[in-house]
UniProtKB/TrEMBL annotation:
This is CBPZ Carboxypeptidase. Belongs to the peptidase M14 family. The keyword Glycoprotein applies. PROSITE patterns: CARBOXYPEPT_ZN_2, PEPTIDASE_M14. One of its GO terms (biological process) is peptide metabolic process. Gene3D superfamilies: Carboxypeptidase-like, regulatory domain, Zn peptidases. Its cofactor is Zn(2+). The keyword Chaperone does not apply. The active site is at 123 (proton donor/acceptor). One of its GO terms (molecular function) is metallocarboxypeptidase activity. It comes from the Eukaryota. Keywords: Carboxypeptidase, Glycoprotein, Hydrolase, Metal-binding, Metalloprotease, Protease, Zinc. The gene is Cpz.
C-alpha cells in the first residue's frame, strides 16, 4: 500500500507513519457531501466493479461501529427518506464503502490492512463545503454521535500479552478463530 505508481501526499505519509508508531484502535474520517456512515473496504474486491459489496473479515464489528455512530446522530437516525441522506434510511444510515462507490488509497482500508486501527468514514452533511454559519449546527448534530462512537473503544478484547515473567510482549500476533485478520500488540 499504496498501489504502484500511486503518489502519496506528504501529509498522508506523515499520518501513515504516525498510525504505525502509536497503536490506535479506533478512528473516524469526517467528510462532507452526504449524510451516511461508511466502513471498509472502500476499494472493491474487483477493480472493474464500481459498486460492489466488499466486506472485511471484521464485517460485523465494522457494522456495529458504523451503527453506533449512525444511531446516535439525530438526522441519520431520522427515518424520513425525503431528507438529506434519505436514500440510506433503509440501510440504517450505514453502507460498506465499496458498495456505495469504490476508490483506492483510502485511509480506512490502509488502517485496517496495515495497523490495528478500525476506521469508519462519516459523511457529516450533504454540503461538500458547508458555509461557516452552518458549522455550529453540524457540530451539534455530530457531537453526541462522535462521543458514542469513541465509547466503542471499550468494546472487544483488551489486556496485556506478557511472557512467563510478566513482561509485555511487543508485536505479539493475536488471532481470533473464524476471523482471518490478525492484530499485533503495541509497545
Amino acid at each position: 500500500f499504496p498501489p504502484p505508481g500511486f503518489q502519496v501526499a506528504p501529509e498522508t505519509k506523515a499520518v501513515m507513519k504516525w498510525l504505525r508508531s502509536i497503536p490506535f484502535v479506533l478512528s473516524a474520517s469526517l467528510h462532507g457531501g452526504e449524510l451516511v456512515v461508511t466502513y471498509p473496504y472502500d476499494y472493491s474486491r474487483h477493480p472493474m466493479e464500481e459498486k460492489m459489496f466488499s466486506p472485511t473479515p471484521d464485517e460485523k464489528v465494522f457494522k456495529m461501529l458504523a451503527k453506533a455512530y449512525a444511531d446516535a446522530h439525530p438526522v441519520i437516525s431520522d427515518r424520513s427518506e425525503l431528507r438529506c441522506g434519505g436514500n440510506f434510511v433503509k440501510r440504517g444510515g450505514i453502507i460498506n464503502g465499496a458498495e456505495w462507490y469504490s476508490f483506492t488509497g483510502g485511509m480506512a482500508d490502509f488502517n485496517y490492512l496495515h495497523t490495528n486501527c478500525f476506521e469508519i468514514t462519516v459523511e457529516v452533511g450533504c454540503e461538500k463545503f458547508p458555509l461557516e454559519e452552518e458549522l455550529f449546527t453540524i457540530w451539534h448534530e455530530n457531537k453526541g454521535a462522535l462521543l458514542n462512537y469513541m465509547e466503542m473503544v471499550h468494546r472487544g478484547i483488551k489486556g496485556i500479552v506478557s511472557d512467563k515473567f510478566g513482561n509485555p510482549i511487543k508485536n505479539a500476533r493475536i488471532s481470533v478463530r473464524g476471523i482471518q485478520h490478525d492484530v499485533t500488540t503495541g509497545n
